[in-house]
Design a protein that fits this description.
18 helices, Serine Threonine Protein Phosphatase 5, Tetratricopeptide repeat, Lipopolysaccharide assembly protein B, cell membrane, elongated, single chain, two-stranded antiparallel ribbon, transmembrane
């Protein structure tokens, strides 16, 4: 059978034309898709920069619909939902990412971390804990441990908090020995006297410079009737951390009176006061004075060194005024005026309280309350 070259001559141009036409269609479709997705994406970024979150979400949703396989758009959308407080929608976005089989390992870890943040912001601490635990061994492990530590502190689960703090202390997140000491003190507060003794001794070793373990241990010994040991522990605390003496002054005086070591306590408090005048140290000294007149004189001498409305109110309380019938009214007004000045203020968030806290009730920061009162700051 003879081969007809006519078909070959016609077939080659036709095949070439069809191939060229198909390539043009593919290029055109690709250009359309590339124009649509970036346009919606950049429009969303523009809305986001102008703090128009509603419009930004609409633009990102459009971009995701045009290109559902783009993980970055999903991350941007999920973060926007979380920032707006729409935690349920953020969870759905990040769970959708985790369900994708084609997601890379790094993006899977990123989506798991984002999901944990969604639960954390929504206040679903049990689900947040479960999600954070899955990040062990990933690039987000340290961030996950810090979040877990905050959860356990918030729920006052000091055993779990101590475990996480040990892991963080072994890493590069910083030093957590001080927190470990606080956790042990918190556990001791709810333990039997024998167990509390052991826990507080561990706390002393964990943070040798912290005054709290010795203060709590001194209170435990004082309650057991061992005032001498309590006094020596408070002396030790003052020596290792002189700045904490205003907190130690009252229990130090009480222990000194109970074991007959007033002279030692007076000498220690006087030396500290001469170096750094303090109202609490001054109150400790006046408590050791047997003569009321000598005690009132101390407040006058303090006023000569430091202008203090608190000291003035305490001095006037023991004085006879020319119009003594008005003294109660004047004293009541002064006591009302000095109340805000006798508070403690958190250095991290400014939260004020009548008593000293080791952990701020406002911002949950540890050791953020100075030992000195507001008037002295």
């Amino acid at each position: 059978m003879d081969f007809d070259l006519t078909w070959l001559l016609w077939g080659l141009p036709i095949a070439f034309a069809l191939g060229w036409f198909a390539s043009r269609l593919d290029l055109r479709q690709l250009r359309i898709e590339n124009r649509l997705a970036p346009k919606a994406y950049f429009r969303g970024l523009n809305f986001l920069l102008n703090e128009q979150q509603d419009q930004a979400i609409d633009a990102f949703i459009e971009a995701v619909q045009n290109d559902p396989d783009t993980s970055e758009l999903h991350f941007a959308l999920g973060n926007l939902f979380r920032r707006r407080g729409e935690y349920e929608r953020a969870v759905r976005v990040h769970e959708h990412l985790l369900s994708r089989a084609d997601l890379s390992r790094a993006d899977r870890h990123r989506a798991q971390h984002a999901l944990a943040l969604d639960f954390l912001k929504a206040g679903l601490l049990d689900r947040a804990e479960e999600a954070l635990r899955k990040l062990e061994g990933t690039a987000y492990e340290e961030q996950a441990l810090l979040a877990l530590l905050a959860i356990y502190e918030r729920s006052r689960d000091w055993v779990q908090a101590s475990e996480i703090a040990r892991k963080l202390d072994a890493g590069t997140a910083g030093q957590f020995a001080g927190r470990q000491s606080h956790y042990l003190c918190e556990l001791a507060a709810a333990a039997s006297p024998a167990e509390a003794e052991q826990l507080l001794q561990q706390a002393r070793l964990a943070a040798p410079g912290s005054p709290r373990p010795r203060m709590d241990l001194a209170a435990l010994r004082r309650k057991a009737g061992d005032a001498r040991s309590a006094f020596e522990l408070l002396q030790e605390a003052a020596g290792s951390n002189p700045g904490s003496l205003p907190l130690l002054a009252r229990p130090l005086v009480e222990a000194a009176v109970a074991c007959g070591r007033q002279d030692e306590a007076r000498a220690m408090l006087q030396a500290a006061y001469e170096q750094t005048p303090s109202l609490d140290v001054l109150d400790g000294l006046t408590a050791l004075d047997s003569d009321p007149e000598a005690a009132r004189t101390r407040y006058v001498q303090h006023l000569q060194r430091e202008p203090s409305l608190v000291a003035a109110a305490k001095w006037i309380a023991g004085e006879k005024l020319e119009h003594e019938q008005f003294h109660p009214d004047v004293q009541r007004a002064l006591d009302h005026a000095v109340k805000p000045l006798t508070r403690y203020r958190c250095a991290a968030c400014g939260f004020e309280a009548k008593q000293h806290f080791w952990q701020c009730p406002g911002c949950q920061a540890w050791d953020s309350y100075p030992a000195r009162r507001v008037e002295e700051l």
